[in-house]
From TrEMBL:
Entry protein name: FAD dependent oxidoreductase domain-containing protein
Similarity remark: Belongs to the MSOX/MTOX family.
Gene3D superfamilies for the chain: D-Amino Acid Oxidase, subunit A, domain 2 (3.30.9.10), FAD/NAD(P)-binding domain (3.50.50.60)
Cofactor: FAD
Alphabetized SUPFAM superfamilies for the sequence: FAD/NAD(P)-binding domain (SSF51905)
Region forming the signal peptide: none
UniProt organism field: Bionectria ochroleuca (Gliocladium roseum)
Keywords assigned: FAD, Flavoprotein, Oxidoreductase
Keyword field contains Flavoprotein: yes
Pfam families assigned to the protein according to its UniProt record, in alphabetical order: DAO (PF01266)
Chain ranges of the FAD dependent oxidoreductase domain: 9-397
Domain of life from the UniProt record: Eukaryota
Length: 469
């Protein structure tokens, strides 16, 4: 007699780092018990996705919060050992930097040292001079007076587009199902029976039935308010501007060999050249952008949660493939301080990249309080990509789609499932009824993207830097 059990049907909506990682984990380790369908609103990797729409993402252990540092330890092991991810990881090491008056460097160093990770600091005297002895092309001595730094060899960066393609190939090769299409893959409604979800409807009118639906829709989670009701202020879509340039000259490329990723606290992320393409990038952290349902031109009016603006919706318009002039000005402003020889390079592939930011900076992974069978796993908050190789395991266990004992660490001590559930829970007081959305950027300004794209008014970057809390 057969003792087969019907697998639980799970629909995952959104094939970014959170959704794809969960689908891959379930397909690798829970096949037969869970039947997964991954739905994605654009051709994979979608140009809207924070996870697949770029060339570089920092991979780090350094967190001021030991909880995320412990998760990152597990993740970096996977970047270094899992054949799906290994080829896309570059162990350049990482420089952490902060302007005077902050404590992030001390906190990160402390967490690293307590985890047994070697940390190099830059002495007590002239830290910029020390920095330049190690990496002569980094830092403008005059403009970085008073800054503090540390360096760790642990960490580096990865090519997100290549990594998600590799993860998707693995998922598909294991029989994983994907529908990636603007009509057939875009979820437009929930199928509900009283307060129980039975499945979802896609834009082509098809119904897809499931026992459990997990929304991993990132910054787009506030776009269609029917899908995840009562999210309120827990998720705030913020766009960050990035620009690329290329080192064409072999001598110049050679001169930049061995440079680390630089986390320039609240100013941006600087990536060393990709040794094969010579591509470099800076992601701007001085300001964020949003799009309001009721447009407002003032960056001081911060009342609405806002929505993310899809690149796919902009394709074919004058606004496609652009960043506001103030963002380009900001990127050059940071480069002038950090890598003066690059500040006047010709930029290309400038774009906005959207992520779901939470007011407390933590993820949101929980069951919906009012609809049974509906869950969310989002809130990457500007640091979610590095967890691509491992976050699916945490999501599946937290939401009860994988057994509780699947949270076993390969390297150190992972937080317990109770800690994860508490940290990521829906309705955390810090995230609800947040009146001032600048909280999600710790006081940095959030500008209306369409207003700034159309007005294209540079010349305000110094005001933006000054207005921080
Ligand atoms: C500029 C920038 C720099 C960053 N730098 C780093 C870094 O250096 N290191 C790091 O670790 N993290 C970084 N992050 C954060 C990281 O990229 C994100 O936290 C992470 O990629 C978010 O993954 P996600 O799966 O939640 O969202 P996404 O990757 O955005 O995926 C969501 C997916 O859902 C799909 N979707 C939305 N609505 C629907 C629907 N109705 N139906 C079907 N599909 C839908 C979207 O098309 C999209 O593909 C950065 C983010 C940005 C924006």
């Amino acid at each position: 007699m057969s003792s087969s059990v019907t697998p639980k049907k799970v629909i995952i909506v959104g094939a970014g780092a959170f959704g794809l990682s969960t689908a891959l984990y379930l397909q690798r380790y829970q096949r037969g018990k869970v039947d997964v369908l991954l739905l994605e609103a654009g051709s994979f990797p979608c140009i809207d996705s924070a996870s697949g729409n770029d060339t570089s993402r920092a991979i780090r252990l350094d967190y001021a919060d030991p909880f995320y540092s412990r998760l990152a330890q597990e993740t970096i092991r996977a970047w270094k050992t899992d054949p799906v991810f290994m080829p896309h990881y570059r162990g350049s090491g990482r420089l952490g930097a902060q302007p005077p008056g902050h404590t992030n460097v001390e906190k990160c160093k402390d967490v690293l040292i307590r985890s047994g990770v070697d940390v190099e600091d830059f002495g007590d005297e002239d830290k910029v001079a020390m920095l330049q002895r190690k990496w002569p092309l980094l830092g403008n001595k005059e403009k970085l007076q008073g800054w503090d730094f540390y360096f760790t060899k642990s960490g580096g960066w990865a090519n997100p587009r290549e990594a998600v393609i590799s993860a998707m190939e693995e998922y598909r090769s294991l029989g994983g199902k994907l529908i990636d299409d603007a009509q057939k893959g875009r979820v437009v409604d929930n199928i509900l029976e009283a307060n129980q979800i039975r499945g979802v409807k896609t834009a082509d009118g098809q119904s897809h039935w499931a026992d459990h639906v997990i929304y991993t829709t990132g910054a787009f989670s506030t776009l269609n308010k029917k899908l995840i009701p009562n999210l309120g202020t827990q998720i705030q879509p913020i766009g960050f501007a990035t620009a690329h340039w290329k080192l064409e000259d072999a001598e110049e490329l050679k001169a930049w060999e061995g440079y680390p990723v630089v986390d320039i606290y609240h100013n941006g992320y600087f990536f060393p050249p990709d040794p094969t393409t010579g591509l470099m990038k800076l992601g701007l952290g001085i300001v964020g952008f949003t799009h309001d349902e009721v447009p407002t031109s003032s960056w001081e009016d911060q009342s609405d949660v806002g929505i993310a603006l899809r690149n796919t919706d902009l394709v074919g318009t004058n606004d496609a493939g652009k960043i506001p002039a103030i963002a380009e000005e900001g990127i050059r402003w940071v480069l002038r301080r950090w890598a003066p020889s690059l500040a006047d390079k010709e930029f290309f592939d400038m774009k906005m990249c959207w992520d779901a930011m939470t007011p407390d900076g933590g993820w949101l992974i929980d069951h919906h309080p009012d609809i049974r069978g509906l869950s969310v796993a989002t809130g990457g908050s500007g640091h979610g990509f590095k967890f691509l190789p491992a976050v699916g395991k945490f999501i599946a266990a937290t939401l009860g789609v994988a057994p509780e004992d699947s949270i076993v660490s390969e390297v150190g001590q992972l937080p317990s499932l109770d800690e994860m559930r508490s940290k990521w829970r829906w309705g955390r007081p810090a995230n609800v009824n947040v009146k001032d959305r600048k909280v999600v950027l710790q006081g940095r300004p959030i500008l209306n993207v369409m207003h700034h794209l159309r007005a294209q008014t540079p010349g305000q970057i110094n005001d933006m830097v000054r207005c921080r809390l």
